[in-house]
Design a protein that fits this description.
CATH class: Mainly Alpha
Number of helices: 5
Number of strands: 0
CATH superfamily: Fumarate reductase/succinate dehydrogenase, transmembrane subunit
Order of helices and strands: HHHHH
Structural class: mainly alpha
Strand content: under 5%
């Protein structure tokens, strides 16, 4: 009896019919956070360039980042950066076969998410 072999899986199947473990969602989120951070760096460089331009530019950047939506975007980028770094460290440990069984993978993924949330909340409390 032959198996089905290879078949293409579309995104609808991935999100609706296939049940992925939490560690797989963290791994996918790690890749997506890297993509969002790649484009988010442009926003950060714009604000940095505005602030470095002149004293008036610094005040304009300060005014821009003190508004609620840019502040939330900045906090979101901080969360994504912390999440991306901690998930990357987890992946490096997996490459060295540290914590590569199912129990440690599940708990390691939970630690990555909780660590990112806790550190982001701490930064939010300190800065705002």
């Amino acid at each position: 009896m032959k198996g089905q072999g290879f078949r293409n899986v579309d995104l609808g199947d991935l999100f609706l019919r296939i049940s992925l473990p939490f560690s797989a969602w963290v791994s996918i989120s790690h890749r997506l956070s890297g993509l969002v951070l790649f484009f988010g760096v442009g926003l950060c460089l714009y604000a940095l360039g505005l602030a470095m331009e002149s004293p008036e530019g610094f005040l304009a950047a300060k005014e821009l980042l003190s508004q609620p939506i840019p502040m939330l975007v900045t906090l979101g980028l901080v969360f994504l950066l912390i999440f991306h770094i901690s998930a990357g460290v987890k992946h490096l440990l997996l490459d060295w076969h540290i914590g590569d069984n199912i129990v440690f993978a599940r708990y390691g993924s939970m630690v990555v998410v909780l660590l990112a949330i806790i550190i982001t909340l701490g930064i939010w409390l300190i800065l705002w």
